[in-house]
Each structure stands twice: as structure tokens, then as C-alpha cells.
Amino acid sequence: MHQPTHDYLVHLEWNHGRIGQLSSPELETFIECATPPEFPHGVPGIWSPEHLFTAAVSSCLMTTFLAVAEHSNLKFEKFSCKASGLLAKVDGKWMMTEIHLYPELILSPEEKEERGLKVLEKSEKACLISHSIKSEIKLFPKVLHYALN
Q1: What is the pTM of this model?
Q2: What pLDDT digit, counting tens, does each position of 21-36 carry?
Q3: Are residues 43 and 62 in the same domain?
């Protein structure tokens, strides 16, 4: 049986210097991107490929978590995730070697922390972007209960 495939169209147009603009015919917004400031002629304050790579892993965790949580009937109040991507030289070539994910999940009062943690871990293992890259993914979850103030 033939499995369906999906295409995601992206267009990049160079503006000037080390800055370009990402767009997609499928989306209304664009993203300016540039060489990061750590490299020659890099530009501070603009999304770099390294930021976008890290964001792809983090946003995949979120979207996968939302699907797994819905399927599991996990009740939660808030999900957020900080992420850091480590760029290092390996065998003389630069690569993103690790992505550290710091999801924070605030559960509804009736939920158990262990269940929230299990759903987060299952979500990280199911993330299709994580499956598609060489970088090591490390999860540092924090699960709390919603506190009434």
C-alpha cells in the first residue's frame, strides 16, 4: 500500500549582505534570516538557520505533545518549551550536535504528574523532526500542577 507524502514549500530570496527572506506560498507571513553573528559578516537580531533548526525541533515537540495529550485525554492548563541548540565542530565540520528541550507542563488539578511526564516523553519519542536529524535530543521536562491564586 502506498503511503501518502506531503510537500512543504519554502522560498528564500536574498535581500542584501548576509540577509534573506523566507516565505511560503502556503503562509501569509515571512521570516527574515541571516548568518548568525558568531560567523564572519553575521547579523545580530535576526533569525539564523541555527535558530530555525532548534525551533523546528521545539515546535515539533509541542505539536506532537498536543496530539498525544488529546489522544490520552490529558488535561492541562499550559505548555511552554525553552530550547537550546548546540553548534559544534565534529571532524572539522560545523553541525548542530545537540538540542536540549525544556518543556514546562502545567497540569489540571485532577491529573497526576507521572502521567504528564509520560505523555511528554512519549511525545518526544514520536516527534518526526527529531527522527529526521542526526542531533542528539535531550529532554529536561518540568511538570507542575495548576495553582489557584
Answers
A1: 0.91
A2: 999 999 999 999 999 9
A3: no
Phi first, then psi, for residue 29 (nearest 5°) are -100, 165
Tell me the pLDDT tens digit for each residue of 119-133. Answer: 999 999 999 999 999
The verdict on 82 and 108 lying in the same domain is yes
* Domain match, 132 and 92 both: yes
Structurally, how many domains does the chain consist of?
2
Residues 129 and 77 grouped into a single domain: yes
Q: Which amino acid belongs to residue 141? A: P
* CB neighbour class for 86 (10 Å; exposed up to 12, middle 13-18, buried from 19): middle
Q: Name, in order, each residue with C-beta under 8 angstroms of 110's C-beta and a sequence gap of 6 or more.
A: 75
In which domain, by residue range, is 88 found?
A: 49-145
Please name the residues in contact with 68: beta carbons below 8 A apart, sequence gap of 6 or more: 74, 119, 122, 123, 126
